[in-house]
Amino acid sequence: MLELRLSQGVLLKKILESVRDLLSNVNFDCSSSDGLCLQSMDSSHVALVSLQLLPHSFERFRCDRNLSMGINLAHLSRLLKCAANDDIITIKTDDQSPDTMSLMFENPKHDRISDFEMKLMDIESEHLHIPDTSYEATVRMPSQEFARICKDLSTIGDTVIISITKEGVKFSVSGAIGNANIICRHNISVVKPEESTVIEMKEPVSLSFPIRYLNSFTKATPLSSTVIISMSHDLPMVVEYKISGAGYMRFYLAPKVEDDTMEA
């Protein structure tokens, strides 16, 4: 049997909003040690999404055995629209009905309980091992600032060059209408640490990425006030949103490889 009770049901809604443009059918994996996890590639096999909600992030977490639930995110999103942001959400599966998942939305303030049942899917997926990596450069900055930069630069071009040096992190775009550069310098705020831009660097890194994917990643902005961007040459970039002691949402994106071949 599986029972997950989330006192802040809005968290589940925010998680779904952050990934539903990238993913469609996914497996949510549950275990007593790791909690609720998701790992899936987008349909183009360009970006990888990795989510973990630790067991202690739930008001009640019961997982009698390792379990994988195949879920259509569009269907789940439709059901979660029936939940208010202050609802308590409980997810259950029963060994007697392994092909369904029940959702209960409770609102003590309005003395209301709603029950839904959703069909699960049989989804074949390969779980990729993501090794712990020491990155050449890491930037921690306000997540809303990162979202604004990505949105602004996407109006200029399709590819952003992210360059991290000891002076700061630079976002550069070139397009048909011109060029744009935005630089965020290393800046630590003691009064409001979440507004700091902190750069840790072993060596400078400069890589190119399709900006439309970064814009998709920033849908996770409501999950955290800060975002951590980690980069190394010849490795996928990691964009991480830590979920206030509950876990994390990570997006992996391979850098664009410049085509140096010339046409005859």
From TrEMBL:
Residues 1-126 form the Proliferating cell nuclear antigen PCNA N-terminal domain. It holds the Pfam family PCNA_C. SUPFAM superfamilies: DNA clamp. GO terms for cellular component: PCNA complex. CDD domains: PCNA. It is found in: Nucleus. Residues 130-256 form the Proliferating cell nuclear antigen PCNA C-terminal domain. One of its GO terms (biological process) is regulation of DNA replication. Its main location: nucleus. GO terms for molecular function: DNA binding; DNA polymerase processivity factor activity. InterPro entries: DNA_clamp_sf (IPR046938), Pr_cel_nuc_antig (IPR000730), Pr_cel_nuc_antig_C (IPR022649), Pr_cel_nuc_antig_CS (IPR022659), Pr_cel_nuc_antig_N (IPR022648). Keywords: DNA replication, DNA-binding, Nucleus. This protein is an auxiliary protein of DNA polymerase delta and is involved in the control of eukaryotic DNA replication by increasing the polymerase's processibility during elongation of the leading strand. Belongs to the PCNA family. PANTHER family: PROLIFERATING CELL NUCLEAR ANTIGEN (PTHR11352). This is DNA sliding clamp PCNA.
